[in-house]
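Re: flavin-adenine dinucleotide structure - here you go.
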Amino acid sequence: MLKQYDVIVVGAGHAGCEAALAAARLGASTLLLTMNLDLIAQMPCNPSVGGPGKGHLVREIDALGGEMGRNTDRTFVQVRMLNLSRGPAVRALRAQADKRLYSLTMKHTLEQTEHLDLAQGQVEGLLVRGDRVTGVVTALGQAFAAPAVVLTAGTFLNGRILSGESSFAAGRSGEVRGPPHRLLSPRRGAAPSPRTPRRSGCTSASPPGRRARPRHPGLRSRRAAPSGPAAAPPWRPPGRSCGR
Ligand SMILES: Cc1cc2nc3c(=O)[nH]c(=O)nc-3n(C[C@H](O)[C@H](O)[C@H](O)COP(=O)(O)OP(=O)(O)OC[C@H]3O[C@@H](n4cnc5c(N)ncnc54)[C@H](O)[C@@H]3O)c2cc1C
């Protein structure tokens, strides 16, 4: 029999952790389903929280009772107000967290939260009846039912890794390879059963005649730059691994 929840959250990155905690803390029976339970709230690169780009977001999450700020308070190794020599509009608090501890501490918080179950699995499709979602199914054929599914697949959604000359479909480096974007392939009218035949997003979700979006518009347009003395240099992956 299918396990029934009020809410299923797919993906335990920053967004998924907040969504699952918010739902469970409101009393909804919640399942947080993610690819690897040992990589909950994993930060891909520089483990910084806040700063000019995202500081306002962290504070908004904090104001709404979210966990990111609290988890950072428990695990930061350095915290700094940036741009103190400039005007108040550009100042921003930024913390550097202990990357592994941040993940473990968030996992601990999730595990201690009432109404919240954690499970490991790669969600491969949505179960849909009529125009309503009824659950999810994983790559191993496990199905879970819920009237609400929150997708927070984040940086994995149709992600690609460019490394030197090679380029391949993947989520985060060192994790699952292959195209995780099949997540958005609804099985319309299907009974919520793991035995339901699968359809890909191309066959069921795309409107007829719609052209596929170029995978890397930036890459394409740079390659298409006119040649000649004033032409832009050939595109290369950025030398710095991250610039946030
Ligand atoms: C290379 C890189 C470097 C970055 N560096 C920084 C930085 O230094 N500072 C900064 O602030 N931001 C940085 N970012 C951005 C930051 O990582 C994202 O903004 C943030 O991780 C987004 O959080 P999220 O919860 O939306 O998604 P993610 O953190 O990507 O989490 C997605 C979660 O969904 C799970 N998932 C995906 N597909 C499925 C599926 N089919 N089934 C089950 N689970 C699934 C994954 O396992 C993961 O747990 C960087 C991003 C990248 C790619």
